[in-house]
Amino acid sequence: MEALLLNDLSADLPDGVRLQRAATAIREAFACDAVGLLMLDAADTLHLVAASGLAHEALGRRFVVAQHPRFATILSRREPTWFDPESVLPDPYDGLLDDRKGSPLPVHDCMGMTLYRDDRPWGIMTLDALATGAFDEAARARLRRLGLILQAAVRVTDLERENRQLRQLGSTQQGLEHIGEATEILGHSEAIQSLLHELDLVADSDLPILLLGETGVGKDLFARRLHRRSRRSQQPMIQVNCAALPESLAESELFGHVKGAFSGATSDRPGRFEAAQGGTLFLDEVGELPLSLQAKLLRVLQNGEIQRLGTDQVIKTDVRIIAATNRDLKANTQAGLFRTDLYHRLSVYPIPIPPLRDRDRDVLILAGHFLEFSRARLGLRGVRLSYEAERALRQYPWPGNVRELEHVISRAALKMLSRGASRDQVLTIGPELLDLDITPPEPPAEASPQLVASEAAPPAAATDPGAIAPLRDSVEACQRRAIGEALAATQGNWAQAARALGLDPSNLHKLARRLGMKHESGIAS
Ligand SMILES: Nc1ncnc2c1ncn2[C@@H]1O[C@H](COP(=O)(O)OP(=O)(O)OP(=O)(O)O)[C@@H](O)[C@H]1O
Predict the structure, then answer these.
(1) Given the CA of residue 180, which atom of ligand 1 is nearest to it?
(2) Taking a C-beta distance cutoff of 8 angstroms, is the pair 242, 288 a contact?
(3) 3-state secondary structure of 482
(4) Closest atom, ligand 1, to C-alpha of 192
(5) Could you say which of 87, 255, 263, 283 has the lowest number of CB atoms within 10 Å?
């Protein structure tokens, strides 16, 4: 087994896949029910980076060590730790073991071991078996040997790079309170993995980058990552929300002013360009920049020089520009809303960010991340999704992308409590609480094993007639998706969406209301 594991670990594979394989191999070797590999960050938070036998959404979970005594115990020892099945310490995986469907874990065997790198804890490995007595003395000795092999593997992989990122993350993030504003980009899908790879390639190039994507896809996070991975990472990153710049003050905000430049200018003040000197200036929602300012911005980008308002003195700038927009800037240039020359300056390297609906099962990983945030914030023992809720999340087109998912999950967790659920139980969120207005098809009669993090195979084609959704449901799901996509493509403009769909606007409103995508007062949140 050890030889096989070594083989897997030395294969030429992306790090995530390598660790995932290791988790699966360890689970098979110990014939246990779940294996987790968790990486520690500088804020003493463990990130589940690979798992076998745990629900897919578990991969988005982050565990603050101080809140999980079992993990704290494992981390405090060099030798493997075995937990007595009668141990009263709460189990961090309560409700997450794949075949438990949200019910509390019964008495079971559990052991774990700290993995070190350069004599500092890199993270931990955990093993769970529902059969008590599965982990005897021999198993613990074996775990120790395995731990040493894994440690060696961790050393030679690029994971060190990822780990460094996590360490940096931890130092700017004080534990769970900030997890909702995740600075780490979650996602195992091909779409996100290749995007991250591309970002890392261009991060250091100093080229201006234009991030394109629907609202809520994470453009802000990607911009931060670009800065963090660039040679300017030790210098400031200054963000300007172009949509929020009042036209009258915009010039002074960007370029600064001197005392007396206008009434109210009582002292010299540097602008955002100067504040970003040596670092990165992030022009968010750049498509909203007023035309008058576009010309001035263009001049600065061409000359690399700024002048504060009220003076002729020229200041040389050394700033890398990252811009983001959810508009179709090219179309805006044709419509005369955005200057073509500025568009070309900004879009030297355009990077489209895929919408959530194109990211496969990342929606579950992200849901797990937001569930853990809600769990900690609301003081719950555990909270997870039912199979049907998972299906609903995967079917929904997510016009509001990750931001919408975040709101859906926090609202569902709150609703459970307001309906009288106990904080001491592991709560299971069903589709009705998600309020997504899609009718998920019934699960096949025989409960199929839940999707396991390690076995990322696409769902099998439905051959069981019972598993086929009624025609009306399929038609409605299709209509919802088309409307969602049209709204996303038109930035929520119902009139334009109606035109794109070939519908009369009032009919679109009627249809959207019938499909539950729009309340009388507006769009369903
Ligand atoms: N891959 C991801 N992993 C973790 N959290 C994410 C991810 N993508 C987005 N988020 C979270 O979703 C929320 C919305 O992301 P963000 O504000 O970056 O979107 P945006 O594309 O800039 O939206 P807008 O165009 O409306 O400004 C944030 O809370 C962010 O932390």
Answers:
(1) 29
(2) yes
(3) helix
(4) 1
(5) 263
Residue 448 or residue 39, greater confidence: 39
Q: Would the ipTM clear 0.90, i.e. be above it?
A: yes
CA of 184 to the centre of ligand 1 (A): 10
* CA pair distance 21, 37, nearest whole angstrom: 11
Mean pLDDT, residues 444-460: 36
Helix (H, G, I), strand (E, B) or coil at 261: coil
Question: What are the residue ranges of CATH 3.30.450.40 in the chain?
Answer: 2-170
CATH homologous superfamily for the domain 190-352: P-loop containing nucleotide triphosphate hydrolases (3.40.50.300)
Closest CA to 428 of 449, 412, 410: 412
Q: Is 181 in the pocket of ligand 1 (CB under 6 A)?
A: yes
User: What does the pLDDT look like over 61-102, one tens digit per residue?
Assistant: 889 999 899 999 999 998 899 998 888 888 888 878 876 555
The answer to whether 1 and 29 are in contact (CB under 8 A) is yes
End-to-end CA distance of the chain: 51
Phi and psi at 245, nearest 5°, equal -80, 115
**Hey, what are 393's tokens?**
């999340």
| DSSP states of 371-409 | HHHHHHHHT-SEEEE-HHHHHHHHHS--TTHHHHHHHHH
Residue showing tokens 């049907």? 388
> Which candidate, 347, 345, 309, places its Cα nearest to that of 328?
347
Q: Is the CB of 437 under 6 A from ligand 1?
A: no
For residue 403, the CA-to-ligand 1 centroid distance in Å is: 6
In contact, 74 and 93? CB cutoff 8 Å: no
Average pLDDT score, the chain: 80
pTM for this structure?
0.71
Topology given in CATH for the domain delimited by 2-170? Beta-Lactamase (3.30.450)
pLDDT tens per residue, range 274-290 = 999 999 999 999 999 98
Which residues are CB-neighbours of 334 under 8 A, at least 6 positions away?
Answer: none
- Helix, strand, coil share (%) of the chain residues, nearest 5: 45, 15, 35
Q: CATH 3.40.50.300 residue ranges in the chain?
A: 190-352
Angle at 424 between CA 418 and CA 429, to 5 degrees: 50
Q: Where do the CATH 1.10.8.60 domains begin and end in the chain?
A: 358-440+469-523
Longest dimension (CA), the chain: 80
Do 28 and 21 meet the contact criterion of CB atoms below 8 Å apart?
Answer: no
328 lines ligand 1 (CB under 6 A): no
Helix (H, G, I), strand (E, B) or coil at 307: strand
CATH topology of domain 358-440+469-523: Helicase, Ruva Protein; domain 3 (1.10.8)
Residue 100 has a pLDDT of: 53
